[in-house]
Amino acid sequence: MNYPYMYPPFNLKDFESMSLGEAQQYFDWYTAEIPSRMRFLKQMIAGKFELDFSSKSLIPLFTWYLTTINRYKLSDSELHEKLTWFRHQNELSYEVAEIQLLSNPIDIMLEDYALAMDIAIYYGEVLIHNYPQVGWTFFTKPKSFVHLNEPILDVIDDTGYLRKNPRSLLHQLIEQFKADQINNHVLYENFLLDRADILGVDDED
Predict the structure, then answer these.
(1) Count of beta carbons in the 10 Å neighbourhood of residue 163
(2) Dihedral over Cα of 128, 172, 5, 40: its sign
(3) S-S: 120 plus which of 79, 153, 170, 198, CB 3.0-4.6 Å?
(4) Cis ω for the linkage preceding 4 (within 30 of 0)
(5) Which pLDDT does position 98 carry in this prediction?
(6) For 143, phi and psi rounded to 5 degrees?
(7) SS3 call for 194
(8) Distances (CA, A) of 124 to 2, 119, 202, 204
(9) Residue 69 has pLDDT above 60, yes or no
(10) d(CA 42, CA 156)
């Protein structure tokens, strides 16, 4: 599979160290790229099913993704390289990565991550299309906020609460895939949970 990764045309800092202007620059670039990333995703799907931004479209999309990607075992040098990279991010990232990688030294290809990040965007757009009170935003405070300066989803009314980072969700699902603990309905199941949060109700579906 040859799938283009989403790289900004400017120097990318860690989100935690971005200034307000840098966070705004990244956010503006990220949201402006959404239409083209959705075109890439649709081209990759090649008409196998319809990406119509319905909640149920998440099921065939994630089912297809799980059949497209492959796990492989990291070599000792690859494992060392990854741990070194995480060590230079922050202590928490390194500690989490160390536990995950040493217990299960499995990874997927860069192209598979790239595809997952566009599926994350699609997931966000599904929420927005179904619930117009949801939109992309970013937060620059408090500094302890886990998704500081990152594009996330939030609600603009006082009914519910969201603050969802779809990229983090896909990274979590990838970790489940690596551990062979995944099912093809999990993305849709997350949608149902987010729907309940958006509407401020208990979801019984």
Answers:
(1) 14
(2) negative
(3) 170
(4) no
(5) 82
(6) -65, -20
(7) helix
(8) 24, 9, 21, 22
(9) yes
(10) 29
Collapse the DSSP code of 136 into the 3-class scheme (helix H, G, I; strand E, B; otherwise coil) and give the result: strand
- Other Cβ atoms less than 10 A from the Cβ of 196: the count is 15
What's this model's pTM, rounded to 2 decimal places?
0.90
**Per-residue model confidence as pLDDT tens digits over 127-168:** 999 999 999 999 999 999 999 999 999 998 877 889 999 999
How far apart, in whole angstroms, are the C-alpha atoms of residue 156 and residue 162? 10
Phi, psi of 161 (to 5 degrees): -145, 135
On whether the CB atoms of residues 108 and 177 are closer than 8 A, the answer is yes
Output DSSP code: residue 144: T
Place of tokens 């997927």: 108
Examine the pLDDT at 188 and tell me if it is beyond 90.
yes
Q: Where are the alpha helices (DSSP H) in the chain?
A: 20-45, 58-68, 76-87, 91-103, 110-130, 166-178, 186-199
Contacts of 63 (CB under 8 A, 6+ apart): 184
Burial of 106 (0-12, 13-18, 19+ CB in 10 A): middle
Place of tokens 């990040």: 117
User: How many residues make up the chain in this entry?
Assistant: 205
In this structure, are strands 152-155 and 72-73 parallel, antiparallel, or unpaired? unpaired
